[in-house]
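User: structure tokens for this one?
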Amino acid sequence: MDVAVEERRGEEFREALTMGLYVSLSLQTVALATPTPDVGEDRAGVALTLFLTAVGLLLAHQVAFRLSTKLTNRGVVDVGSVALLRAQTLGGLPVAFIASVPVLLLGEIGLTVAELTLLAFVGVVGFLAARSGGASRTHALVYVIGLVVVIAAILALKIAVNH
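Assistant:
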């Protein structure tokens, strides 16, 4: 395979993964700050809030990326930039469904399932990242534990600031 094509695919994969992680971390904050819907309450409303928050994040990123690309590319959003935007959307949109569908289908427990699924996604990526850097399984697990602690601290800080 051509080296340039391989580099472009790697960059697109990185952008998709980055957006998935970003949306996941952001939705964890929203999910933790959202009251758990009791039996019979509007779980569709909670699911919609999570989904629309994710879509809003993706749209805001699209605007920011397009503006910064135009600034750095003399007013042009080129084919490569459009490919990165597509990758970012494809990375973030599934996370919107992962966060909202359990709430919609499972109600009260669904919000917890969504929170744990989002955290698991970040944990798995963290584990794979550590392993790809040559870490042993034990060190990779320690890395993930540290990552979860840092994420929990960030989420606690964001929730404290918003209340």
